[in-house]
Amino acid sequence: MSDTTPAAETAAPHRYTAQLAADIERRWQDRWETEGTFAAANPSGDLDSDPELAARPKKFIMDMFPYPSGAGLHVGHPLGYIATDVYARFQRMTGHNVLHTLGFDAFGLPAEQYAVQTGTHPRVSTEANMVTMQAQLRRLGLGHDRRRSFATIDPDYYRWTQWIFLQIYNSWYDKAADRARPIAELVAQFADGTRETPDGRPWAELTAAEQSEVLSGHRLAYAAQSPVNWCPGLGTVLANEEVTADGRSERGNYPVFKANLRQWMMRITAYADRLLSDLDALDWPEAIKLQQRNWIGRSEGARVDFPVRTADGQASADAAVTVFTTRQDTLFGATYMVLAPEHELVEAIVPAAWPEGTHPVWTGGHATPADAVAAYRKQAASKSDVERQAEAKDKTGVFTGAFAVNPVSGDPVPVFIADYVLMGYGTGAIMAVPAHDTRDFAFARAFELPMRCVVEPTDGRGTDTTTWDDAFASYDATIVNSAGEGISLDGLGVVEAKAAITRWLSERGIGEGTVNYRLRDWLFSRQRYWGEPFPIVYDEDGVPHALPDSMLPVELPEVDDYSPRTFDPDDADTSPETPLSRNAEWTTVELDLGDGPRTYRRETNTMPNWAGSCWYELRYLDPNNSERLVDPAVESYWMGPRDGRPAGGVDLYVGGAEHAVLHLLYARFWHKVLFDLGHISSVEPFHKLYNQGMIQAYVYRDARRIAVPAAEVEELGGEYWYNGERVTRLLGKMGKSLKNAVTPDEICAEFGADTLRLYEMAMGPLDVSRPWEPRAVVGQYRLLQRVWRNVVDEATGEVTVSDAEPDEETLRALHKAIDGVSGDMAELRFNTAIAKITELNNHLTKAAAPVPRAVAEQLVLLIAPLAPHIAEELWSKLGHTASLTHADFPVADPALAQDPEVTCVVQIKGKVKARLEVPPAIPEAELEALALADPAVVAALGGAAIRKVIVRAPKLVNIVI
RNA sequence: GCGGCGGUGGCGCAGUGGCGACGCAGCAGACUUAGGAUCUGUGGCCCUUGAUCGGGCUUGAGGGUUCGAAUCCCUUCCGCCGCACCA
Length: 961
Known about the structure:
Pfam families: Anticodon_1, tRNA-synt_1_2, tRNA-synt_1g
Catalytic activity: tRNA(Leu) + L-leucine + ATP = L-leucyl-tRNA(Leu) + AMP + diphosphate
Shape: globular
Subcellular location: Cytoplasm
Helix content: 25-40%
Strand content: 15-25%
GO molecular function, one term: ATP binding
Enzyme class: ligase
Number of helices: 31
CATH class of the domain at 6-162 and 611-691: Alpha Beta
CATH topology of the domain at 6-162 and 611-691: Rossmann fold
Distance between the termini: 65 Å
């Protein structure tokens, strides 16, 4: 595979070639494995092998869990793994006990779909994929502690996933204490009367089913009938997060419908505030924090009750529609109301006939309100979210025939239904203030509804709304036109007006200040085979029972058919059927759960793909513990809170930005529950998060827009040709389907793993996406060749270093490099670290003399985290018998890292006219005198009068004339 | 539409107020039968010169602050990423 011919080989039999690299790399990988070089020491338990190591400061470094895909890796995949490995190796050399390993997130749809197509058990194909991927990763020389690796599909692992599920199931959120507590403590409160039951009956008088139902309303994991995203094409329900903005499944791109189904949910909303506020202490990219904040979507406002006349014509305080608004200050401007089409009160308020004088555009041309509402509801339900989306600008809706009363002005306001109000947000009903809300404005214009200006525009448009082109929505203005019984907001600013009206509302019991969240509870069940079974059974009354710990794990049974029943993707009128439900032998089970052997029916849903990755960081710590999820002493050692990381957590977590909300939010939620229940000492799972960029690749397409093999495209004078046909070039993702994938195996074969590692790290900053440039890889290969040649004679293979003392210039170059490289490594700036190593090596190459041993050794140590195989080989050639994994990383001598002379630039009017070599500590006056006396300066000045001299010792003198 | 990030040689990118790092490509040379191997040198554009020297212009565009701007401020254009009728 190497480009080097036999001729060159004979000339330099010990040149650093791809073959030599392959030989070195395989040998060191074997040695690391047999010596257990990367074993991290626990303070106690079965992995406490080395107390000296455990006594060092710890670093817990993690990559996001890979899914073992059957397609194999391309060079983009290991980018993050290489980066964490470099960082981990650097940390080992700076005296840390480093925990770095990698497991597999191995439950998932691809294996199941493959099983459906081929009949291969998902476990079989998944395990084969893991073997392939392990081999590919091993070839890169990643320093993982293999003892700590596992896959989520291991029963020993998912036993604890199920255990955590039960912990969550058996907990409730105590709002007063602001934490989760065991459900038994809630039962005790109901039992002794401290807490009243919903209907006031004593707890003991409730049937088991009723008690179960009550508790279900509090449990952090609960089964409930709720509107969920049903995807007939996949045959499963999906979490909101798995549905794209245009209402399709993220996987498969099938239509998704709203259906009311009984599903398992996680009460993540109980943690909304903590998930939000605890972000502050985390060292995460702002963009990710922002996405989480937006996803949680906290907004402060008020709930306000609007009395409505019911269908029988009675105005009644009982029939009130509650709205959520963030602009309670504009309540006087509410001239109509809108309910979501699905709102439960709609039917109750629709009268038999249109009220006298109903505006024709409000009725949609229907004879009665009931007809109009039914027609609109039907139309809204049949529309996919895509269609709603497309029509977002055109406001549609219909009058219900009912009127409500604006509680502050007393004015009657018509009640509409319209699909611009969403059932899932707030209360599913709004008060519409067309003058001060853009959506309401558009609706009011379309339906010729009145407007009332209650916030004085500051842009000079005046208060006559008939002349307006849009709503005036600014917060920075004063309230007008807002005086009523016992209240006047006139003259107040928006903020004060909000406070005043909120107080007035709560005094009267018709509203209150409240906080609303966009975040909803997490849909946790899937109609899939290849996932963790729920540790739940149902008795003959349908009451769910948690299985005791002793019955875990509930293992996945064998089935004949892995597929859920799927349907016509467009048929909304279908409902899910799980693969596990077809296995009667498994679903029906006789158990003794404390009251004698009885027959139970197993839960046949499985957990979603995220379950296994919600807590894996904890299992890396103590992977073999059969008694506990993780030993508290071990957890506190690796993840406990300490200075600089008050919430504790992993020291560095590297992965793609695509997990910004899903995985990271779920994992934080589980972590907090486990913390509340006292199982762990850290409040957050991941202290520092880093998003690596993507490696992109050029996609070449022919005239039919079909991708052609990128490797076979030729460039001729700025144009691209394939098989004699001109093709176009665009930057895109790397992948098999685009025919532009480059595999790590190819690069390793052509140059070696160290070159691949170096190139991936040198391409640019880790967090930036950049194109893979096949031609540029050779640059890093050359660097390694030069490093090799600076230490080893290519003809004899003998070490060439001298025992001479390094000259001062070399020493300074070395210490400057050390200084820069250590700083860069600590901050994950591997690209600039490599540039500085290259600079040093170029200096040594140009010196054209044997490299002094002291300098060679430091150079080898500097490059060791980046290119560990060649570094180990050189280190051993230099006479060291032990691996350099735990050798001390070079430390810069500050006196040598700084130049004895710095170049001072002398500018005249900002243009450089002369350069002086001066000591760094030169006094300003002396520097100025030196500059003014310089012949070049004198010449450039030509006797002109000097107006001013700016001296910035020691680097600059600027003369102004 | 709202929010975030970013635009520097042919390319990937260094550089957070004061000499454009490092690599690729290119060009010239060396070793070579040859080289897409390796080594050495060169290194944006324009003017001037036989060649040096010298001078001018360059960090998306335009303006501003400053003795001095890739860096700070304003305006504008382009690209990428989130969110998207969230009341």
